[in-house]
Protein backbone atom coordinates (compact mmCIF):
# COMPACT_ATOMS: atom_id res chain seq x y z
CA UNK A 1 0.00 0.00 0.00
CA UNK A 2 2.77 2.44 0.91
CA UNK A 3 4.56 1.56 -2.30
CA UNK A 4 1.46 2.42 -4.32
CA UNK A 5 1.04 5.72 -2.49
CA UNK A 6 4.69 6.51 -3.07
CA UNK A 7 4.32 5.86 -6.79
CA UNK A 8 1.24 8.06 -6.90
CA UNK A 9 3.13 11.01 -5.46
CA UNK A 10 2.01 13.80 -3.15
CA UNK A 11 -1.37 14.21 -4.81
CA UNK A 12 -2.34 10.59 -4.13
CA UNK A 13 -1.42 11.07 -0.46
CA UNK A 14 -3.73 14.10 -0.36
CA UNK A 15 -6.53 12.08 -1.97
CA UNK A 16 -6.08 9.30 0.60
CA UNK A 17 -6.18 11.90 3.37
CA UNK A 18 -9.48 13.20 2.00
CA UNK A 19 -10.81 9.63 1.94
CA UNK A 20 -10.11 9.30 5.67
CA UNK A 21 -11.89 12.59 6.39
CA UNK A 22 -14.86 11.53 4.25
CA UNK A 23 -15.08 8.15 6.01
CA UNK A 24 -15.05 9.79 9.45
CA UNK A 25 -17.81 12.22 8.44
CA UNK A 26 -19.97 9.44 7.00
CA UNK A 27 -19.59 7.19 10.06
CA UNK A 28 -20.25 10.03 12.51
CA UNK A 29 -23.38 11.22 10.67
CA UNK A 30 -24.79 7.71 10.27
CA UNK A 31 -24.39 7.07 14.00
CA UNK A 32 -25.91 10.48 14.78
CA UNK A 33 -29.01 9.97 12.61
CA UNK A 34 -29.54 6.44 13.88
CA UNK A 35 -29.30 7.57 17.50
CA UNK A 36 -31.67 10.54 17.28
CA UNK A 37 -34.17 8.54 15.22
CA UNK A 38 -34.33 5.70 17.75
CA UNK A 39 -34.53 7.99 20.77
CA UNK A 40 -37.07 10.27 19.11
CA UNK A 41 -39.83 7.70 18.61
CA UNK A 42 -39.71 6.51 22.23
CA UNK A 43 -39.47 10.02 23.60
CA UNK A 44 -42.40 11.42 21.61
CA UNK A 45 -44.64 8.60 22.82
CA UNK A 46 -43.76 9.36 26.42
CA UNK A 47 -44.20 13.11 25.94
CA UNK A 48 -47.67 12.74 24.42
CA UNK A 49 -48.72 10.48 27.30
CA UNK A 50 -47.40 12.90 29.91
CA UNK A 51 -48.86 15.99 28.24
CA UNK A 52 -52.26 14.30 27.99
CA UNK A 53 -52.22 14.25 31.80
CA UNK A 54 -51.09 17.88 32.00
CA UNK A 55 -47.75 17.03 33.66
CA UNK A 56 -45.63 19.71 32.00
CA UNK A 57 -42.74 19.60 34.48
CA UNK A 58 -42.36 15.87 33.96
CA UNK A 59 -42.39 16.40 30.21
CA UNK A 60 -39.60 18.98 30.51
CA UNK A 61 -37.55 16.54 32.59
CA UNK A 62 -37.93 13.84 29.94
CA UNK A 63 -36.82 16.25 27.21
CA UNK A 64 -33.75 17.34 29.19
CA UNK A 65 -32.70 13.69 29.59
CA UNK A 66 -33.11 13.01 25.86
CA UNK A 67 -31.29 15.79 23.98
CA UNK A 68 -32.04 15.85 20.26
CA UNK A 69 -33.26 18.42 17.71
CA UNK A 70 -36.89 17.39 18.21
CA UNK A 71 -36.51 17.42 22.01
CA UNK A 72 -35.06 20.92 21.90
CA UNK A 73 -38.01 22.16 19.84
CA UNK A 74 -40.52 20.53 22.15
CA UNK A 75 -38.80 22.03 25.17
CA UNK A 76 -39.12 25.51 23.68
CA UNK A 77 -42.78 24.86 22.95
CA UNK A 78 -43.43 23.77 26.53
CA UNK A 79 -41.62 26.79 27.93
CA UNK A 80 -43.93 29.07 25.92
CA UNK A 81 -47.06 26.96 26.44
CA UNK A 82 -48.97 29.83 28.07
CA UNK A 83 -48.59 32.03 25.00
CA UNK A 84 -50.94 32.11 21.99
CA UNK A 85 -50.46 29.29 19.43
CA UNK A 86 -49.00 31.72 16.88
CA UNK A 87 -46.33 32.81 19.34
CA UNK A 88 -45.56 29.21 20.30
CA UNK A 89 -45.11 28.28 16.65
CA UNK A 90 -42.87 31.28 15.94
CA UNK A 91 -40.62 30.47 18.90
CA UNK A 92 -40.36 26.82 17.88
CA UNK A 93 -39.51 27.80 14.30
CA UNK A 94 -36.77 30.12 15.58
CA UNK A 95 -35.37 27.23 17.61
CA UNK A 96 -35.59 24.96 14.54
CA UNK A 97 -33.39 27.39 12.59
CA UNK A 98 -30.72 26.83 15.23
CA UNK A 99 -31.07 23.05 15.05
CA UNK A 100 -30.68 22.75 11.26
CA UNK A 101 -26.91 23.49 11.28
CA UNK A 102 -26.46 20.70 13.85
CA UNK A 103 -28.21 18.25 11.55
CA UNK A 104 -26.16 19.40 8.54
CA UNK A 105 -22.87 19.31 10.45
CA UNK A 106 -19.88 18.42 8.20
CA UNK A 107 -22.13 17.33 5.31
CA UNK A 108 -21.12 20.37 3.18
CA UNK A 109 -17.49 19.35 3.76
CA UNK A 110 -18.29 15.86 2.48
CA UNK A 111 -19.87 17.43 -0.58
CA UNK A 112 -16.71 19.45 -1.16
CA UNK A 113 -14.61 16.28 -1.00
CA UNK A 114 -16.80 14.65 -3.66
CA UNK A 115 -15.89 17.50 -6.01
CA UNK A 116 -12.24 17.89 -5.06
CA UNK A 117 -11.17 14.22 -5.16
CA UNK A 118 -11.68 13.62 -8.92
CA UNK A 119 -10.20 17.04 -9.71
CA UNK A 120 -7.09 16.15 -7.74
CA UNK A 121 -6.98 12.86 -9.64
CA UNK A 122 -7.10 14.81 -12.89
CA UNK A 123 -4.37 17.11 -11.62
CA UNK A 124 -2.23 14.08 -10.80
CA UNK A 125 -2.84 12.75 -14.30
CA UNK A 126 -1.65 16.00 -15.85
CA UNK A 127 1.46 16.32 -13.66
CA UNK A 128 2.28 12.63 -14.16
CA UNK A 129 2.09 12.98 -17.91
CA UNK A 130 4.22 16.12 -17.75
CA UNK A 131 6.90 14.15 -15.92
CA UNK A 132 6.67 11.30 -18.41
CA UNK A 133 6.99 13.56 -21.43
CA UNK A 134 9.68 15.55 -19.64
CA UNK A 135 11.80 12.39 -19.50
CA UNK A 136 11.42 11.89 -23.23
CA UNK A 137 12.22 15.54 -24.01
CA UNK A 138 15.38 15.47 -21.92
CA UNK A 139 16.72 12.16 -23.19
CA UNK A 140 15.41 12.33 -26.72
CA UNK A 141 14.32 8.73 -26.27
CA UNK A 142 13.31 6.49 -23.45
CA UNK A 143 16.77 6.00 -22.02
CA UNK A 144 15.52 5.03 -18.55
CA UNK A 145 12.16 3.23 -18.76
CA UNK A 146 11.86 3.41 -14.96
CA UNK A 147 11.61 7.20 -14.98
CA UNK A 148 9.00 7.15 -17.71
CA UNK A 149 7.03 4.43 -15.96
CA UNK A 150 7.03 6.43 -12.71
CA UNK A 151 5.40 9.40 -14.41
CA UNK A 152 2.79 7.23 -16.10
CA UNK A 153 2.10 5.38 -12.82
CA UNK A 154 1.50 8.65 -11.00
CA UNK A 155 -0.89 9.75 -13.74
CA UNK A 156 -2.92 6.53 -13.61
CA UNK A 157 -2.89 6.01 -9.85
CA UNK A 158 -4.11 9.48 -8.97
CA UNK A 159 -6.97 9.19 -11.46
CA UNK A 160 -8.04 5.87 -10.00
CA UNK A 161 -7.60 7.18 -6.45
CA UNK A 162 -9.72 10.25 -7.09
CA UNK A 163 -12.55 8.16 -8.55
CA UNK A 164 -12.38 5.53 -5.80
CA UNK A 165 -12.80 8.26 -3.17
CA UNK A 166 -15.38 10.34 -5.05
CA UNK A 167 -17.83 7.61 -6.09
CA UNK A 168 -18.76 6.27 -2.61
CA UNK A 169 -18.52 9.79 -1.16
CA UNK A 170 -21.13 11.01 -3.67
CA UNK A 171 -23.42 8.09 -2.82
CA UNK A 172 -23.23 8.75 0.93
CA UNK A 173 -23.43 12.51 0.44
CA UNK A 174 -26.72 12.21 -1.45
CA UNK A 175 -28.01 9.77 1.16
CA UNK A 176 -27.12 12.10 4.05
CA UNK A 177 -28.60 15.13 2.29
CA UNK A 178 -31.79 13.13 1.88
CA UNK A 179 -31.73 12.29 5.60
CA UNK A 180 -31.29 15.97 6.42
CA UNK A 181 -34.23 16.96 4.23
CA UNK A 182 -36.43 14.30 5.81
CA UNK A 183 -35.25 15.43 9.25
CA UNK A 184 -36.23 19.03 8.53
CA UNK A 185 -39.65 17.96 7.21
CA UNK A 186 -40.13 15.79 10.27
CA UNK A 187 -39.29 18.72 12.52
CA UNK A 188 -41.89 20.85 10.74
CA UNK A 189 -44.47 18.11 11.27
CA UNK A 190 -43.57 17.83 14.94
CA UNK A 191 -43.84 21.61 15.32
CA UNK A 192 -47.42 21.56 14.04
CA UNK A 193 -48.30 18.56 16.20
CA UNK A 194 -46.86 20.21 19.28
CA UNK A 195 -48.64 23.50 18.66
CA UNK A 196 -51.94 21.64 18.27
CA UNK A 197 -51.26 19.52 21.34
CA UNK A 198 -50.30 22.46 23.52
CA UNK A 199 -53.22 24.48 22.22
CA UNK A 200 -55.59 21.65 23.06
CA UNK A 201 -54.15 21.22 26.54
CA UNK A 202 -54.34 24.95 27.14
CA UNK A 203 -57.98 25.03 26.07
CA UNK A 204 -58.72 22.03 28.29
CA UNK A 205 -57.13 23.71 31.29
CA UNK A 206 -59.11 26.89 30.68
CA UNK A 207 -62.42 25.00 30.44
CA UNK A 208 -61.70 23.18 33.67
CA UNK A 209 -61.01 26.44 35.55
CA UNK A 210 -64.02 27.15 37.80
CA UNK A 211 -65.88 30.34 37.05
CA UNK A 212 -65.69 33.04 39.73
CA UNK A 213 -68.60 33.18 42.16
CA UNK A 214 -70.50 36.42 41.59
CA UNK A 215 -72.79 35.77 44.50
| Shape designation | rod-shaped
Distance between the ends:
93 Å
The percentage of residues in β strands lies in: under 5%
Structural class: mainly alpha
The Cα radius of gyration reads 29 Å
Counting DSSP E segments of at least 2 residues, the number of strands comes to 0
- H and E order: HHHHHH
Count of structural domains: 1
Please work out how many helical segments DSSP would assign: 6
Would you identify the regions where 5 or more consecutive residues have pLDDT less than 50? 202-215
Q: What's the helical proportion of residues?
A: over 70%
For the biggest sheet, the summary is:
none
Mean pLDDT metric:
77
Please characterize this protein's 3D structure.
- With 215 residues, the protein is mainly α.
- The chain has one domain.
- The protein contains six helices and no strands.
- The chain has helices at 2-52, 56-65, 69-79, 85-103, 107-139, 145-208.
- The radius of gyration is 29 Å and the shape is rod-shaped.
List the helices and strands and how they pair.
Layout: H1 2-52, H2 56-65, H3 69-79, H4 85-103, H5 107-139, H6 145-208
Helix pairs in contact: 1-2, 1-5, 1-6, 2-3, 3-4, 3-6, 4-6, 5-6
Task: Please summarize what this structure is.
This protein has six helices and no strands.
Keywords:
215 residues, mainly alpha, 6 helices, disordered C terminus
Amino acid sequence: MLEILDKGGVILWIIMGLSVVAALIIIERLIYFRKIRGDEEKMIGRIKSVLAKGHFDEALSILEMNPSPIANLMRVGLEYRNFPPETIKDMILDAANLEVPKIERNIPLLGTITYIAPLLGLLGTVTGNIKAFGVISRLGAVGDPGLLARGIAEALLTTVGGLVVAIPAIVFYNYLVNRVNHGILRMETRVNELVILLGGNKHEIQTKTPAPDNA
